[in-house]
Amino acid sequence: MNIEDASTTQKGIVKLNSAINSTDESTAATPKAVKATYDLANSKYTKPSTGISKYDLDSNVQASLNKADNSTVVGVSSINGNILINGVESTVYTHPSTHPATMIVEDATHRFVTDNDKNNWNTLLNSPTWNILALQNNVQIYATSTDLSYCKIGKIVYVRGILKNITSLPINIATLPVGYRPYISNVFICPSSIESNIPTFTRVSVSNTGVISIDGKSGSAPTTSTYFAIFFSFIAEN
């Protein structure tokens, strides 16, 4: 009976091989070759003078890997394999009753801002104080509570009022005090009386010396009953 040589695909006669570096897949390694290969692998690791043995190293590495497989973080749900971390629970934080000088805490009711920022914000929130300007050249207010007034919020000056009894243009109507004047002269377009269902407009200017004047008007010449609505704002000089 003929018996063929063994291979990776069929049974047969196997030839023994004692070489420790052979790649021949038609022969089988002897126990001597297996032991020599094992001894060679062990000899490749040299224990340093201050190191740990290979056995201890393998044991420590495996122990660390086992711990990494199943870990718990304070305040966080258990981490096990690919289980989703739910995150820090909302109830684990307790807000301190007092804030030490070395600690800045920010939440819905405690914000860290400078005193300057706080004062600026409070100024914007407060209702401004309007001051009434003295009118010049026989100019009159159009009705009660339409005085020509001014106020200042931050660096911005606001002027408002509705006037009448202006029959010739240009005309100076009032002067703003120091601290409420622009760096340079400003010109504004403001509404005035409606004529034949057509609105008219007025050219109003304020100089860097604070003089407010009405320089001109569209439509027909003004009369004593023509109203001039004055509304404008600008950046103050200081």
Automatic annotation (TrEMBL):
UniProt keyword Lipid biosynthesis present: no
Keywords on record: Host-virus interaction
Domain of life (superkingdom): Bacteria
Record bears the keyword Transmembrane helix: no
Any GO BP annotation: symbiont entry into host cell
Entry-linked InterPro entries: Phage_lambda_Stf-r2 (IPR005068), Phage_Tail_Fiber_Structural (IPR051934)
One Pfam family per UniProt: Phage_fiber_2
Coiled-coil positions: none
Intracellular or extracellular location(s): Virion
Primary subcellular site in the record, as a coarse category: virion
Family matches, as PANTHER family: PROPHAGE SIDE TAIL FIBER PROTEIN HOMOLOG STFQ-RELATED (PTHR35191)
Protein name: Uncharacterized protein
Organism the protein comes from: Heyndrickxia camelliae
